[in-house]
Amino acid sequence: METRVFISSVRANRLRMLLVFLGGLAVANCGEGSQAASPAGTGGAQGTGGAQGTGGLQGTGGAQGTGGAQGSGGVQATGGVKGTGGAQGTGGVKGTGGSAGSSTAAGPDAAAGGTGGIRDAGTQAAEVAAPAECPAPPAGAPADAVTALNAENAARVAMGIQCATLVLTLCTSAQNHCNYYTTNQGSTTCKASSAHSEISGCPQFTGADPGARIKAAGYTGNGWSECMAFSGDPAAAVKMFIDTVYHRTPVLSPWYADMGYGGGTGCDTIDFGPGATAAKTVTAVYPYAGQTGVPLSFNGANEGPTPPVPSTGWPSGYPVTLYGQGITVATHQIVVDGTTTPLSHIWLDGDSTLGSSAKVLYTEAPLTANTTYRVTITGTTTAGSVNFDWTFTTGAASTGPGGGRRG
User: How far, in Å, CA of 43 to CA of 355, rounded?
Assistant: First the structure.
């Protein structure tokens, strides 16, 4: 089954035009934006779509880590959130979307995907256990949305960051968009050029871009991000987002605490908001310290915008993310644990799509199965020096994420 991924975003007073992902995280899609003052963090991947705002997710200030990687405690797991590989598909279509902003999407046509009708959330939910550390979802929450929340929180708890909160207004905006998407895919006049977009006057229209839809649903937070997938499987969609360079950012960011899921046949939409965001001093890593069963590789050709290509081409090693604000990195290294030979890797710091709160490395060659790797990152903040030093262990060769597109 073909799957796709999308991502789009707008940041306060800083609009960047990015490639459109057709397919932003099974096919999947993510977007960000802002409506008012910015929350403490930067989180989220930048994309193309989203209404222009005056707040955004830009953050300032330094993370005051005093050594050690965040998430070294927490709940141990085997490979993070369970799911079914990555987004299927290849290629990508450039486009623009949203108003006064930019968006990104990966995959074939942004409007491609399931043509089935509207599906009530919950009718195809795969059960995912709720982490004991997280509060219960609100009464009346759709079953599919609870599944997506639990899948996201399984990874967040293991990382040692706060649980995400399910917000019914974000569930409404996300569900409304899947209703539009599934209703209008066969239409020559209402199939939007971007999977994040809607056309006024068409059936199920609730807003031209994610920011407008989220506001119309009643969410009052000061920022937003939207991700789409096209599997109709909430747990798999979350897994696909996590198995990327760019789309992982809003799902696991300490500075996105609100979320809502909506689903349909061949459609998954997650809308994010800042909520009760973490302090600027929080840091976190993924894969988290002690994680096992980590996938071996990542095919960035299936994500849009496409991350920097390794010198040997795709696939690369599985991405490693450091979340933190105000960190100036001095050194970064990944080795096989117990050795001293650095592995050649790509390092992303200050990447406009990641934003300033996330830094990513991935080895140029895929990782080796059943092997422990050590990552060390040193730097400074306004509070002094920081040192991150942690290990994770890969799984068998068959545990790598699927080769589908992500955008």
Answer: 7
- What residue ranges define each of the domains in the chain, with the CATH number in brackets? 284-397 (2.60.40.3780)
Distances in Å between the Cα of 384 and the Cα atoms of 41, 65, 177, 360, 375 are 20, 9, 45, 22, 20
Element (H, E) at 216: helix 210-216
- Classify 254 as helix, strand or coil: coil
Q: How far apart are CA 61 and CA 57, in angstroms?
A: 13
pLDDT digit string (tens) for 341-386?
A: 999 999 999 998 888 999 999 999 999 999 999 999 999 999 999 9
Token pair, residue 104, equals: 């990104």
* Residue ranges of the chain whose pLDDT lies below 70: 1-127, 398-407
Q: Say how far apart CA 89 and CA 138 lie, in whole Å.
A: 36
Q: Which residues contact 402 (CB under 8 A, 6 or more apart)?
A: 3, 84, 85, 86, 87, 88, 240, 243
